[in-house]
Amino acid sequence: xxxxxxVTPLSGAHSEAPLCYLLQVDGFRFxxxxxxxxxxxxxxxxPLKSVAPTIDAVLLSYPDTIHLGAFTYAFAKLGLQATMYxxxxxxxxxxxxxxxxxxxxxxxSNFDLFTLDDVDTSFANSVQLKYQQHYQLQGKGEGxxxxxxxxxxxxxxxxxxxxxxxxxxxxxxxxxxRKERHLNKTVLENFVRxxxxxxxxxxxxxxxxxxxxxxQEFIDMILKVLRAEGNVLLPVETAGRVxxxxxxxxxxxxxxxxxxxxxxxxxxxxxxxxxxxxxxxxMSDSIARSFGSSRENSFLLKYLKLxxxxxxxDELPSGPKVVFASMASLEGxxxxxxxxxxATDSRNLVLFTxxxxxxxxxxxxxxxxPPKIVKVTMSQKIPLTGExxxxxxxxxxxxxxxxxxxxxVEEVGPNSPEAKAVTGPLPLTVAEPGGGVPLGVEGSLAxxxxxxxxxxxxxxxxxxxxxxxxxxxxxENPSDWDEYGEVINPEDYRVEDTEMMDYQSSQQxxxxxxxxxxxxxxxxxxxxxxxxxxxxxxxxxVKCALYYMDxxxxxxxxxxxxxxxxxxxxxxxxxxxxxxxxxxxxxHCVKNVCRDVYAPRIGETQDVTSDLCAYKVRLTERxxxxxxxxxxxxxxxxxxxxxxxxxxxxxxLPLLPSxxxxxxxxxxxxxxxxxxxxxxxxxxxxxAEFAGGVLRCGDAFAVRRSGxxxxxxxxxxxxEEYYKLRDLLYSQFYML
Amino acid sequence: MTHATKAIYKLLLSxxxxxxxxxxxxxxxxxxxxxxxxxxxxxxxxxxxMEVNGIRFWCYTAGHVLGAAMFMVDIAGMRxxxxxxxxxxxxxxxxxxEMPHFSPDVCIIESTYGVQIHQPRIxxxxxxxxxxxxxxxxxxxxxxxAFALGRAxxxxxxxxxxxxxxxxxxxxxxxxxxxLAKKCMAVYQTYINAMNDRIQKQFExxxxxxxxxxxxxxxxxxxxxxxxxxxxxxxxGLQSGLSRQLFDIxxxxxxxxxxxxxYVVEGTLAKxxxxxxxxVTLLSGLVVPLxxxxxxxxxxxxxxFTQTNAFLHELRxxxxxxxxxxxxxxxxxxxxxxxxxxEQNVKILSPKNCQTVEMxxxxxKIAKAVGRLAEKSxxxxxxxxxxxxxxxxxxxxxxxxxxxxxxxLSTGSVMQRQSVPYKGTFTVLRHRLQQMYEQxxxxxxxDSPTLKVxxxxxxxxxxxxxxxxxWVSDPISDMVADSVVAMILKLDSQSMFAVGGGxxxxxxxxxxxxxxxxxxxxxxxxxxTLDEEHQSLTVNVDGIEATIDxxxxxxxxxxxNLKDRIKVALRRIQTALYPLDA
Lengths: 736, 582
Prior knowledge:
The structure holds two protein chains of two kinds. In chain A, 30% of the residues lie in helices and 23% in strands. Chain A has 21 helices and 35 strands. In chain A, strands 6-5-4-3-2-1-25 form a seven-stranded mixed beta sheet. A seven-stranded mixed beta sheet of chain A has the order 7-8-9-10-11-23-24, covered by helices on one side. In chain A, strands 14-13-15-12-16-22 form a six-stranded parallel beta sheet, sandwiched between helices. In chain A, helix 3 crosses helix 5, helix 4 runs antiparallel to helix 5 (116-124) and helix 4 runs parallel beside helix 16. Chain B is built from 14 helices and 27 strands. Chain B is α/β, with parallel strands linked by helices. Chain B has a seven-stranded mixed beta sheet with strand order 1-2-3-4-5-14-15, covered by helices on one side. In chain B, strands 8-7-9-6-10-13 form a six-stranded parallel beta sheet, with helices on both faces. Chains A and B meet through helix 8, helix 9, helix 15, strand 26 and strand 28 of A and helix 1, helix 3, helix 4, helix 5 and helix 6 of B.
């Protein structure tokens, strides 16, 4: 009768590991988020490995690494085939995150977990939804509706509601109940008594200072460092909270007319801001309003310089500056480079705005007290030179030669040889990590004898082994003849009448790929120039100031508890949060929210099928004509006595008026707050005062609540006033 | 309205206020009014479902212009689709109108183009670019009078792309001379996500509305009129303003062209020159020959008959209401649609302005029984009693105790404690209550003597002067309580009377008693003599005598019949005098 619902955490249960959960609704398998850490630890994905191919739909709630980091990898390598559902900003910004990861890893190492193309393919297989769009699943998920709702925290952040028949399952993690500069607050509070709520305990033990105070401290701290000629490094996520910080800084810079340079240094900074500009409809009301009235796009940034690489960054005017750089974990990206560079100067400040992921450099630095010395392993990709280069080229050429041979056999066409040759995989040599001493390149390449003859060949040009010496490829074009002459293909001679479209497509051609220009450039550099990876260990003496301020934009413990009490789910599942926080919230909820609170462990399947029963009946005209509704807020309520009639050809059982209604106890509907009642009395000219939880009315009457229950007690001596008071009290209820 | 519409709305109306330089009294509205409407606007994104008073609605892309939406309104399962202006043809930046997933019960559809059929878009664009290219390559100037919004952006996109593809033309400047269009450009640069996939693809590289070959032109003074040029200027009807100024300068040169890119209003110069008259009147009043070539290439983004027909055939609404269109054109469309839909039972209406169309739909009301009420699955003949809760158009049926679980409502109860003065003995009270009510139980465990009446009301004697009534409110209990109160009050007033006289009073009653009995017996039997000394009464009925000893309550009488009658009478009198002793 009911809908069966099971939740299985695949990662991120009783710990702060990335979020990834399996939700089964009547056998339909949802993957809720698919997160990973910045260190791309493969062991975290073990539980996902076995279930990935069986998933029917993926729902992503935020564009950051801990919510979608593993999606591309699962899609490319683990056999995840399902369609991904997310909001438009999560789609765009999520791609930014993944691009940034690939580019920053590729720049310094032989990153091979996934490629830019994998990112594109995985994200192409998606459906983008709007908030409050009721999307009905087809096929296996027939009858199910998924709806995204605004969650705050990050642009496009989503609370998912999954509805099947009468069941409502809500997945809400990392929401923010506070309105921010660029985002509206979550709408989670609008849900009432869902069957199942899956939420996180990440912030259950945290409390936040008031926003105003924190904002001011933030700016003060940055300015103090700048005025003392220091640099400020803000390690941030690629396209997440950084948007909020940028707006905050921009408004202060404009307000105080500051001239210190501010830079956003990520591989995708331009695209990120450009996307943000076009996603105003997903942002806060105030941003939309300011655009609506003055067409001033809040992300038309006046002070922020967008930098894609160190060269652009180094060209900024010298002197103290503020830099937002990815990654927040300091595990990679420009932030890591800058940290190593700046940490040794005591004037500088590294200001963390979010808690570091477990086991990352950022986490180490946020420890109390901060470490004085950290060991950092830096890797670098340097182009090959001299002998190494020659050796490499030789190897390439040999490889290509064999490959081309295969190609030639496979297909004959004017384009194939060079196309294949260029795109052949370029094996790069990895050096073994060296000892404690920095500098110096360990790792060498075997040198081979180079046949001089081959040296004249340029890249992409390959000689066929069938020929004695190198020659240009020659293709015979065999043509068929019949009695009328050569057989032609009429298509070759047709004049295209869509010339109109041509200039358009010709303009498009070089950029038809979804990738950013910068991506191509970067890739070109990586692909074209043979290089090798050099790994060095640095010992960094951390002299700079380290500070952490909570700009994560998540609801704090107290608000989480309030919201949960308000939503009052029938069953509650807690995930993501340290064991301590999870246990704390679980105990709190059992006491104050609902009886059924679960905190399953990784791999443990928790059944949360609701024991609620329900059936549907058709209300007949005859019954409804005799029903008198009373209005109560949004609701209208009536008492009915019905009798189930016989089922007609098809459809639902009709409900007819009952001939012999059984007597029933009358029901008082309504929820009266004594304070409201006091006000009402005041308007009627009756003196009323609270004394010890009892509302004293007039001289001798009292209205109170009996022992925490819903029951009100009215007390007093028999008199005219007593009945007056009682009538007023009754007027606040509906008696049915 | 959608986000883009809201942004454009503000621009458009403010522009109207600015250009309508009429007296303050004639002004329809001013800036202040616009600002006030802005606060009232709720924005809705495509596909986002909103709910107001239980009526749900959402919108689909309509094509036509940036932000245009078709609204689907769902009232208790009855659905109405309003297309507004729509276009089923994807153009350079807009999506084609979407096909809703389900058929609405009523479709209100525009009929601007009636039964006309558009030339394919490719052909139109080709004619347009050919005309422009030809004119400028011959050293002529091209004037495109166009409304600042909608088609203007489409035409600029075409021109920018054409210039991009033809480097030989790139030295020829393109201008758009409309401050409003310039302002709108920011909106177009922002709401990329409301446009088609092609634009979104381009956007990932660079914003297609950052034109490379097109510049804005503020006014005619800033325009260097040398050599060939392409200028798009408003207004579209050439009534006045920049487009007219340029027209006046260029109209006599036969190298120049004027391209009218869409619908123009009757009575404007643009409409007049479409018929290629020999002469035109300039703004200055001079009449000059019209040598400039005039082309009419419609880029209007309204659905034509083919699109409307295909749209309706796929949508299959049982009711179609035609709106927005010139009467004749609409009539023709209606006739043609009636023949098209002859086999299906489709009602097609074309109401006049202010004419109300009434349709009746019988909605099925479905209630969902939940919670305790639904523990047993329903079968025929079951009695279902409970609360029916309506929110919007959804109904839920539940037991009162479940109200709290399924709605934000809660059930409450009111306990009443009333103190009533009573100075009599509790036994008397109990006696009276037992006489009056069916269920009176004595609660034995209570500290003070307590009675329970009707299972709900408790009456407690607290202290000597008061009884406390306590009950949980409901209409029946209230009634019982009220009657108990009335009784107690009455009893109290009687006992007050008794208590006030003390024992003397009781003695007096004893003395009086015989007199009362006497008078009552007189009224019954007529001849009754009272012997006060012996406290006896003698009744004489038809010669038979009976003596009543009042103290011993004995009756002496030879006739049994009479004796019985007197016995009954005395018992009744006794009961009347001492109702509580019985």
